[in-house]
Write a structure and sequence with these properties.
single chain; 186 residues; alpha+beta; 2 domains; three-stranded antiparallel sheet; 5 helices; 7 strands; elongated
Length: 186
């Protein structure tokens, strides 16, 4: 279901996945990551050594062995999968802008014209003197054909299991990038 909405809304970003050390936060490529972190903070210091993967073992059922004997057999066929402790996902900013700008460029230009013609009262931060100081008039005249964007960055981290001190320590972190040039919704 999620994949269907991703395609309908054109939300198929090019994401980069990295394995991240849970102790020192050094990142490794998924294909070439070692089992233990080899990062050294200094050339003479010992490597971090933190395990980067859970090792999951499960029994692969075989058609010629019944289920009961398979659990007790020491020679059962075990499969091992490596699951990373921490994965860092990022998107290249230039790729995101290529997707973002065609959808919002007309909205931004129309909103920019409408707020410059109505100067009596300030209804939005884009009409404020502080916002106008970001783009001096000589810069506006020189770059009238360019689209100047301003962004704000929001960072938050929380425990989705809502455990305070006891129990599992799980954290969900996210970064939100907000384009400040967009018009307000009505």
């Amino acid at each position: 279901m999620y994949g269907l909405w991703q395609k309908k809304l054109d939300l198929t970003p090019e994401l980069n996945h990295f394995i991240c050390c849970p102790k020192c936060y050094f990142m490794y490529d998924i294909e070439t990551a070692p089992h233990h972190c080899q990062y050294k903070s200094f050339p003479t210091s010992p490597p971090c050594g933190t395990s980067l993967f859970h090792t999951l073992c499960f029994i692969r059922p075989l058609p010629h062995i019944n289920r009961i004997s398979m659990h007790y057999s020491r020679t059962s066929h075990m499969q091992k999968n490596r699951k990373p402790f921490s994965v860092f996902v990022t998107q290249d900013f230039s790729n995101w802008l290529k997707w973002f700008i065609p959808q919002i460029q007309n909205l931004i230009e129309y909103w920019k014209l409408s707020i410059t013609t109505t100067r009596k009262a300030i209804y939005n931060y884009q009409q404020s003197p502080a916002w106008n100081a970001l783009y001096p008039k000589h810069e506006k005249a020189k770059n009238s054909t360019t689209l100047q964007l301003a962004f704000s960055l929001f960072v938050d981290q929380f425990n989705p299991l809502s455990n305070k001190t006891a129990g599992k320590k799980v954290f969900l972190s996210f970064l939100a990038l907000n384009c400040l040039n967009l018009p307000p919704t009505s």
